[in-house]
Prior knowledge:
Elements lengths: L5 E6 L2 E6 L10 H15 L6 E6 L10 H4 L6 H20 L5 E5 L2 E3 L1 H8 L2 E5 L3 E3 L13 H9 L1 H9 L3 E3 H7 L4 E3 L2 H16 L3 H13 L5 H16 L2 H11 L10
Parallel strand pairs: 2-3, 3-4, 4-6, 5-7, 6-9
Antiparallel strand pairs: 1-2, 7-8
Helix pairs in contact: 1-3, 4-5, 5-6, 9-10
Amino acid sequence: MDLQAFEFQIADSIATITLNQPDRGNPIDEGFCRELKEIANTCDESASIRAVLIQARGKNFSVGGDLKSFTRDREQLPLLTKTMTADLNAGVTRLARLDAPVIIALHGLVTGGAVAFAAGADFAIATADARFYAAFTGIGFSCDCGTSYYLPRRVGSRRALDFLIRNRQWSAQNALDYGLINDIVADEAALREHAAALTQSLAQGPTRAFGEVKRLLQSSATQTLETQLEDEARAIARCTRTADAWNALNVVLAKQKPSFQGI
């Protein structure tokens, strides 16, 4: 895979996705969206992956949309945004549907669509100096990247609306208090250490069960109680067919600690 916006590797059942244009602030542009789709498709087709870590090189996690590319041709801008979001949406959807948990490590500026990546990840960690900036309406845009789906689920609809329409900037402590992120660490060294430890821990868990839990939570806001209960019943039945569940039942019954293979 020939990548410019990212570095991507799979090792020891962990997929690591690194935003890799630090000199540009890791902007979201046409190449970024296309490559994210390719990476997400590869993750979706790799049965060996049991956790995904998203991180970034440079001063900022991402400065958001690439304004220079947006201003090159006014007449073509609507077509450009549709092309970009077609690829971007495919990548976001594929990552959301993985059984493997997605962990994101955030530092510096986390702007625009990058806030959606933070909200969409299963676990989010940030440095104490990270700043979360809405940005969309500041340039007369609405939001994308799944912001309108994930942000209200993390922080509530009223706070999400306030953040986006009033073009707010949140500190890492705000983001933690509001539910956007899980943890704050002191600096980038601690971020790398904490994110790696969490990713490795999750990669050793019951991956199929993790996927079922993720999908149940994604659907719960729009389902009736009866439908959600039936979905839960079917999901847990699928889990009972896995080797991980059967082995864990017997090991726990023997008062020992289970280990999981992700199958």
